[in-house]
Amino acid sequence: MAFIVGDNCIRCKHTDCVEVCPVDCFYEGPNFLVINPDECIDCEDCVAACPVEAIYSEDDVPEEQAQFIELNAELAEKWEDNNISEKKDAMADAEKWKDVKGKIQYLEH
Q1: Handedness of CA 43, 44, 50, 52 (dihedral sign)
Q2: Which of 20, 48, 52, 68 has the fewest C-beta atoms under 10 angstroms from its C-beta?
């Protein structure tokens, strides 16, 4: 079982989670982070670190975000050259987007 980055990360992209990941399994896209499920060791450190509560255990992903299970795997492979392990600033308008729900249409692949 891996952990999954969900909808709340889109257009926010806080990177507190990558800083605590012991195996560097996060990958960065233009406005979203993903976890490579094949690299995740299920340590759960990233869950508490995420300021927008965007990270779920694969078994606890809300039904309306189930598509993110496959998206994390697909995008981790697509963004394989964009491994991120050090904290960066969040997106400039992250505060504006942090409580917006249903942001999948804004995901940049």
Answers
A1: positive
A2: 48
Beta strands in the chain (DSSP E): 3-5, 26-28, 33-35, 55-57
The tens digit of pLDDT for each residue in 25-83 reads 999 999 999 999 999 999 999 999 999 999 999 999 999 999 999 999 999 999 999 99
With beta carbons less than 8 A apart as the criterion, state whether 72 and 80 touch: no
In a domain, 98, yes or no: no
CATH number of the domain bearing residue 57: 3.30.70.20
Which domain range does residue 12 map to?
Answer: 3-86
- Report how far residue 47's alpha carbon sits from residue 105's, in angstroms, rounded to the nearest whole number: 24
